[in-house]
Amino acid sequence: MLYAELDAFEPVAIQEREAGDGWRVFFRSAADRNDARGALASEFGNALLHLAAIEVDDEDWARRSQATLTAVRVGRIIVAPPWSNHSDPASPDQITIVIDPSTGFGTGHHASTRLCLELLQKQDLHGLRAIDVGTGSGVLSLAAWKLGAVHVTAIDNDPDALKNARDNVNANGGADAITISEIDLSGLLLEPADLVIANLTGALLQRHAQTLRRLVVPSGALIVSGFTTEEEEDVARALGVPAQETAGEVEWVALRF
């Protein structure tokens, strides 16, 4: 319920405290933060023990919070920060994606990213065109390209995430195959692709379901994640077609249509 309420204010990250006794939610502006705080207080009242507004450095919070990240393996894909030793001589078909943590979502440490990577590896992407909606760090665009996609259009509406994605795409040698654009879903006009990946939230997927459908060619595939098992039925109903495949991890779900 908190995720659903916060979604309207477009937080850039939600970090659970190590003690398990609270969240720290990051917003693009103090105004967004204050509006969200007011909405939570009004909606949940005494159900929340404490709400506090804090100020953090714009760039440093991500690096501080993610400085201890290690490599994550999903199938034959390894997502690693630059400082991690991610080589595996025993896996000649290993695909390595180096992601420098920043404000762009997608280090491989969230279940929804891993689930998308899992479903991507079950697709034959060779020669296909793909669109990555809400690219964040660019990790899923890079995965699609390294799995054989001939071109990927990566879109987001967060300038900080887009900068992070460009840096990561350049660092992984994918600049010629991956186009990064600042585009909002509400005004999206793109040529349909063979594959569309949308790792967003349940609310956004439902709100923009018809737009996402129009982005996929009739014979293509749509992979969605970023929602829980409780939202799965609503997301599938909004998209209007039966899911061909489901992947899950704890309460998180990804679907392929």
Sum this structure up briefly.
The protein has helices at residues 2-7, 30-44, 60-66, 111-120, 139-146, 159-171, 202-207, 209-214, 229-239; strands spanning 13-16, 23-26, 72-74, 77-80, 95-98, 129-133, 151-156, 178-182, 193-199, 216-228, 245-249, 252-256. With 257 residues, the protein is α/β, with parallel strands linked by helices.
Task: Kindly describe this structure.
The protein folds into two domains: 2-56, no CATH class; 64-256, 3-Layer(aba) Sandwich (Rossmann fold), CATH 3.40.50. A seven-stranded mixed sheet has the order 8-7-6-9-10-12-11. The chain has a three-stranded mixed sheet with strand order 3-4-5, with helices on one face. The chain has helices spanning 2-7, 30-44, 60-66, 111-120, 139-146, 159-171, 202-207, 209-214, 229-239, and strands at residues 13-16, 23-26, 72-74, 77-80, 95-98, 129-133, 151-156, 178-182, 193-199, 216-228, 245-249, 252-256. The chain is α/β, with parallel strands linked by helices. It starts with a helix and ends with a strand.
Layout of SSEs?
Blueprint (H helix, E strand, L loop, with lengths): L1 H6 L5 E4 L6 E4 L3 H15 L15 H7 L5 E3 L2 E4 L14 E4 L12 H10 L8 E5 L5 H8 L4 E6 L2 H13 L6 E5 L10 E7 L2 H6 L1 H6 L1 E13 H11 L5 E5 L2 E5 L1
Parallel strand pairs: 4-5, 6-7, 6-9, 7-8, 9-10
Antiparallel strand pairs: 1-2, 3-4, 10-12, 11-12
Helix pairs in contact: 4-5
